[in-house]
């Protein structure tokens, strides 16, 4: 199959490179100039696994304005707040027969994709796969090969021949995919997972394992899970897991699968970038408000993350000022 990965960040690189390794033809499209130019200069991307065996892997990467490929399927991995602009930049090469597949964090991306792709051509899912972008042209796959899992569903909840072919390629790439016919229930399970692990690990600057090791972690997780499930039930979402199964998933991934991993929200905060909290905890808050339900713990955490973002921006300004002062003295 032919894939074009839009967004050559941590997850885009992992999915694209492993699909390429499984025998597929894969291109990458990215808008971050430093990333694209670094990979052009290197002749590919440096790949590590668990901080070891760093090696160069060749790939084809393009800016959206110069891309002319014709894939069977686009794989979208961007931050929620970046997607609309990137879709506009890429629109000139989209064709009616092509599929869009995504496992982006949060909610809000599907509606944007539907502006460019037919409903029957949209496949979305969730990925419990840990990856870190160390910098431009440098990615670290966390966990042994075959670690992690994912779920996916057709937007129409009707599977077709292409979707089954996609699942087969994801199996070959060892992503351990599970195809469901419950679109919203599949996606919302990951939103709830992220609303616990991503947000709390970010606020307290700790790995998933460190969070799960705290004696009060189950109580904290359950409070957020209960609020989130209350919201989903009011909106008519049939979740694919029970509340207890969701808590079990948080514990398994945090304690066994990826205990040393810092979630993506932490990575954004640590690198002075905006987080996706509005598309995770904030999304649950707004969905609850539609039904007169106050998801107050999620609301509190959303405000807390935004306050922390302000603090990080102040820290960045101080660092930049100190750097400029040092340069002047030199």
Automatic annotation (TrEMBL):
The keyword Oxidoreductase applies. Gene3D superfamilies: N-(1-d-carboxylethyl)-l-norvaline Dehydrogenase, domain 2, NAD(P)-binding Rossmann-like Domain. It catalyses: (R)-pantoate + NADP(+) = 2-dehydropantoate + NADPH + H(+). GO terms for biological process: pantothenate biosynthetic process. Keywords: NADP, Oxidoreductase, Pantothenate biosynthesis. GO terms for molecular function: 2-dehydropantoate 2-reductase activity; NADP binding. This is 2-dehydropantoate 2-reductase. It comes from Secundilactobacillus paracollinoides.
